[in-house]
Amino acid sequence: MFSILSTCAYAQVDKIDENQLFSEGETVTPVEKVTDDKLQDSTDKESVSFSGAINSRNSYSMNRDWLTGNNASTAQNNLNNQIQTNMLLEARARRSTKAVVNVVNNVYAQGRSEQRTFQDVTTGATTRVNETVYYDFRFTEAFVDTNIARAVYFRAGKQVLVWGRGFFWNPSDVINAELRSATDAFQFREGTYGLRAHVPIGSSLNFYSFTGVGRSNRAEDMLQAFKAEVAFRRAEVATGVIMGQRKVPTWLAEASTRFLTLDWRAEVTYAYGDNAYRIDPNTFNPLLPVTYQLREQHVFKGVLSFGRSFEVFDVADRLGINFEYFYNGAGYKENVFEQNPLVRAYFVQNGLYRPNFYGMHYAGLFVTYARFFVQDLTLGLNALSNLSDKTMILSQLFTYNPLFNLTLTWQNNIFTGRPNGEYTVSGLGWYTEFSARVSF
């Protein structure tokens, strides 16, 4: 599981930097950034740069029944060896204009099962087939940054956006194509296609908009999002709306501040319905599947998080502790995973299950400790719980940098709680991974 670093809730914005305006800005920090606090300097010179990383990932997954001694067979345990390559090409022009392409390639030694969907062009019938793949390529992001007189900033193309104030959960983020992972320390999120605009007014007022097209070729499927943000001396507040012709509007409000020595973040959304498709667990028949969307009912979602960094043994910000609670008004009251295997399979394979947004109540605790015994070792401890079905992921991550471009990690995830809950239905009990990553 990834580590999370505490960030200040009232950053200064005196100087406009397009990297800050448009970067993903994750507070859920990918492992390669845990001990790297360097900021990429803005430049007005023309240049072309190429960077990336090669990561050897080696993991072993252990079934819960084997761990508890209920099944002596190791047939359900899995060994996986993977090479993950990330390549970033950046071409900078003058006046803060640049183009960026990010490519991720994975090579799987044992292969990976993926589901393919085929549609008959004559009848429209769809067929799903599972196949084993041994490599893949993904353009996770490909965009162009430009501006008008450094007054209006644009990013056009496939991109991952910052949208929401929550530490891990962002209920207002119905824009990004891929959510943050709760278990993958090396996640490269898939971007979504669209045009983002940012209009800063002084250092205290910002206007944002995003027009998303996704993968649809129909203009009526476009998504529109608007947000206004005001920065005060010790706080930031924002409000906005996300809407589309075939969607119920989602209204949002955000705030962050420092109070009683703690950094506080809050995010609330309201919609008269919900745009995600769902099933009724009590009546669903996988042979005659019926899905629907919530309509004409008030749906609230909200996040509250607080935390801070501590000085330990004269080292500033050595220890970071953050807690977050998430209420999901569109979450399931019933446990879909307690249904028969056919219902569970349809629910997951047809994209109806959204990880970490399935239940109604969640909580997370995120701890980091830098310079753990030695200078270049960082410890991350995290707990993520679905309070509704009483299941949990406990995670530990050691990150060691013996060289400036070499990162060694040891990651462990433990899945515990009631059987057939969100984090236990797979039967996985313990996941451990060793990796060695060289950046260039």
Number of helices: 3
Order of helices and strands: EHEEHEEEEEEEEEEEEHEEEEE
Largest sheet: 18 strands, antiparallel, barrel
- In one word, what is the shape? globular
Distance between the termini: 24 Å
What Rg, in angstroms, do the CA atoms define? 22 Å
**Rounded average pLDDT:** 88
> The CATH topology, please?
Porin
> What is the CATH first-level class name?
Mainly Beta
**CATH architecture verdict:** Beta Barrel
Counted up, domains total 1
Full CATH superfamily name: Porin
Could you tell me the strand content as a percent range? over 45%
Protein name: Phosphate-selective porin O and P
Organism: Turneriella parva (strain ATCC BAA-1111 / DSM 21527 / NCTC 11395 / H)
Quickly describe the structure:
The protein is mostly beta strands and 440 residues long.
Structure write-up:
The strands form 2 sheets. This protein has an 18-stranded antiparallel barrel. The chain has a two-stranded antiparallel ribbon with strand order 1-2. It is built from 3 helices and 20 strands. It is globular. It has helices spanning 18-22, 64-67, 341-349; strands spanning 3-4, 28-29, 47-63, 78-93, 97-119, 126-148, 152-159, 192-201, 205-212, 223-231, 235-244, 247-259, 262-278, 292-312, 315-328, 361-369, 377-386, 391-403, 406-417, 428-439. By secondary structure, it is mainly beta. The two termini are 24 Å apart. It is 4% helix and 57% strand. It has a single domain (3-37, 47-439), classed as Porin (Beta Barrel).
